[in-house]
TrEMBL record, chain B:
Any one GO molecular function term: metal ion binding
Domain Globin: 3-147
Entry's family note: Belongs to the globin family.
Record protein name field: Hemoglobin subunit epsilon 1
Keywords tagged on the record: Heme, Iron, Metal-binding, Oxygen transport, Transport
Cellular component aspect of the GO annotation: blood microparticle; haptoglobin-hemoglobin complex; hemoglobin complex
GO BP, sorted A to Z: hydrogen peroxide catabolic process
Pfam family, one: Globin
Native organism: Astyanax mexicanus (Blind cave fish)
InterPro entries: Globin (IPR000971), Globin-like_sf (IPR009050), Globin/Proto (IPR012292), Hemoglobin_b (IPR002337), Hemoglobin_oxygen_transport (IPR050056)
Amino acid sequence: MVEWSDAERSAIAAVWGKLNLDEVGPQALGRVLIVYPWTQRYFGTFGDLSNAAAILGNPKVANHGKVVLGALDKAVKNLDNIKGTYANLSQLHCEKLNVDPDNFRLLADCLTIVIATKFGAAFPPQVQATWQKLMAVVVAALTSRYF
Amino acid sequence: MVEWTDFERATIQDIFSKMDYESVGHNALARCLVVYPWTQRYFGNFGNLYNAAAIMGNPKVAAHGAVVLHGLDRAVKNMDNIKATYAELSVLHSEKLHVDPDNFRLLADCLTIVVASRLGTGFTADVQAAFQKFLAVVGSALTKQYH
């Protein structure tokens, strides 16, 4: 089981508490689709993804970004059982959505970058390390039902 | 050969022309050592790397961070021939320093986060894509002479 120190728990709560999920979700997903264009293959029904402006202005991308960040809330509120919390989502992504699990890491990276742009100096190395640990645990949990 | 759009060239020149090499280099290398602690194995003679505060305050880390960032300058000034520009550095990192090339990506990620935190909203998705492409080309060039 993943161990979280008190400092890590407070750091995560502090970061999460300052995030506007409705803003950050769309930005993170938008960046994934722009910076790693092959990920667009999963969103064939989303309409115009032909360039950065179209992606960032696309309402389906925005909505889906909010859905994803909303789901991340479950991990933040269940730090001691992220794997159990995401068991069903993991199965969904594998068996129904057929998402290559490498893409979870790409989204985690883009989310970390969005946080860095918003927090600036308030995202020091220790906080970054804690945040990336959370991302790694979430990615592992989402991948856990693949095999 | 790597093709660069006008936007990508302008973006890279712009980011580096405004960069505080000493501060950004220090910050990026320190983050690498904090977030990916196994990288400390390459810096056995740097003294105290015991915790985040020690790493951030370590003058050898600061100095070496600046060296690495200034090394990136060569790529910035020779974007059309990054591979040849880094041929010797690649041999050095492989045969003398024995650095696992995965670590180039880790340092690139930390550098991206530092630049993101400094530029804030100016680090748009398009700018992120250009910057990550640049660092990927650099990483690839540094890995070129390994085999």
